[in-house]
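Sample pair:
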Amino acid sequence: MIDASCSGLRLLVALAVVLFPFGLATAEPAVWAVTGKHNTVYLFGSVHLLPEGGFAIAGELERAYRDSDRVCFEVDIGALTPATTLSVTLARAVDPEGRGLYELLGPSAARVREAADTAGIDLSQFAPFEPWFAGISVSVLALQQRGFVADHGVEQIIHEAADRDGKPGCGLETLDEQLALLDGLAADEQQELLLQSLEEAQDIETETKQLFEAWRDGDDEPLARQFKDDFADYPELAERLIFARNARWADQVVALLKQPDDVLVVVGALHLVGDRGLPALLEGRGLQVDRR
């Protein structure tokens, strides 16, 4: 899947599943309105980790939020408890055969150790886990050290507002289904995900700046272009992480349009761009989709 020349792919994997962008949201990301016979479903692309003050419900998003009776995320945040989250995550992050990180890395272990030493990162805390989990965790820790946390991310802020306002929540997939996408990566793919996370940890702000700014400005083109370039050699991965999920979610949006309530649907930003993005798929089904 990944080689050292494809430095953006690790970031796109993160954007597809657990978005790790940088910067302050000072402009207005795009909102799509999908209009049915009985109601409207609004689509908004998210980023999951941000600094305090990095995101606010404003502009077109605020209007869509106020109009919506329910808020739906990739995973129903309100239904998750810390215990459930830990249990589901460990079940995926720990090898069922009991192999640790370096055993799973095999011949790549020495290369990973060297990359970790160069980055000044202690991987011992991830020794019991699979490489994909170690790689994502390295990226998360690098962001947290710079003040970027989930508490200030898009989903958490919208969820907290919905909770205060008494708006029910829903999810398009389960946490286990989401983690299975990463757990199902081939061994070499997981190794390169970890290696790129280590190599980019020291300069992660620069690595993510362009992608974040495109989202912030509501500019699909840079996201779609980098997605196309970086996944060009890995069509099966793009199919699994992005396109197949978009198709499933399009079915769910169609189902939501048969209900009376207006709904705000919040998913990772990469799911909303390109000719196989969620808005394009819904428009292709003959639905009215307006960008706001």
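Residues 1-26 have pLDDT under 50 and may be disordered.
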